[in-house]
Amino acid sequence: MSEPRPRFAVVGNPENRRVALFAEAVRAAGLPAPRVVPWLEVLRAGGAEFDAPEIVRVDSPGENADVDRLLRGAEDPTRVEGSARWYAGFTAALRGLRGGVRLDDPAELAVLFDKRRCHAVLDAAGVPVPASPTSGERAAPVHGWDDVRALMAAHRMPRLFVKPAHGSSASGVLAVESGGGGRIRATTSVELAPDGRLFNSLKVRRYESERDIAAIVDALAPDGLHLERWLPKASQQGRAADLRVVVVGGRATHAVVRTSRRPLTNLHLGGARGDLDAARQAVEAAGARWADLLDVCERAAACFPRTLCVGVDLLPAVGWRRAAVGEVNAFGDLLPRLTGLPGSGAEGMDTYATQVAAALRLPARGLPGLRPPARTGPGRPALPDRHAAEHHRTDPHQKRTGSPDALARPDA
Q1: I need a surface site. Which of 189, 277, 351, 403 has the fewest CB within 10 A?
Q2: Cβ atoms within 10 A of the Cβ of 386, count?
Q3: CA 242 – CA 394 distance, rounded (Å)
Q4: What is the DSSP letter of 286?
Q5: Is 397 within 8 Å of 412 (Cβ atoms)?
Q6: pLDDT mean by block of 10 residues, the chain; 412 residues
């Protein structure tokens, strides 16, 4: 008697292109379209049930005004404030999903959507990350701008990123720089309204009034803030460069270079895709190994072994010899038409087809038994099968228009 065909289900917003792209990948694998369970129904019902054999993917709840209203409690989806309430609603909804073979672990997603906790997990695992006074056992509370100023002085951090603990897609992020004579400025996509409300914007602004910067930080602080040292990044064609690396089943499978003349490289904020081959050549010309940079991303993903796919923001240091992990994103796989890295086992496949193929290799009990494909490209040795087993919302809110060196901690 033949085994039943695998069946997929996805929790998502049915109209969203993320759901459409994943469904397309499932059908391309010769399987029935996945059952779509709308986030709106999950939130209203307090959960959802899945059959034991269903392979369940959780997708982003973003880009839906009704869903955002239920999670955030704000009528205007462009508002920045409310991320703590969003986080509480999102994690509660995750706990209400029952049954199925899960591709995303609720407890791990809860860590991934708290930048302070995620940073602490990565740091404890030896993954290079920017220095931060707001994560780990000695984490300092941040009640407002006065605390940020004090921590900048105490930790000798004249340049730092101030991030909402539960934000995504650079929502509410400020790149803060201080100079002589008490000068201060912040680069951010936050629009500060005359009445003090904060809005997401596609326009990146520079604030040079400490009063305005303090007003933004003070408004965000009740939702929780995470501070990180601003690391000087490598450049490409005179633009600051970082990488989004997608890791599926323990293997770095897709990567894109993001460049910008501003501190924020997010593509939706005016960043541009860079040249991946040029980045690889720059790494090797510096005497480092491209494989080591990808290994940093795989080590970061290995901290979340029960989540099939994450997107790692890799920050290459000036000179391309070292790199640190800026963030690990639960929904960092939206890279349409991008095919897999040579030697990754995902050549010719986009991120969604790669995840479907990896999910079909899962044993019935779940992710830790996943056997990643062997490396085939130059400089990418096959990793042991235990690699994935033994190691432990980049979706934008709706926007208002208007070598060992690679593993060293680059704190300087």
Answers
A1: 277
A2: 11
A3: 16
A4: T
A5: no
A6: 82 98 98 98 97 96 95 88 96 97 97 98 98 95 97 96 93 93 92 94 94 97 97 94 97 96 84 94 97 97 98 97 97 96 96 97 57 38 28 33 34 30
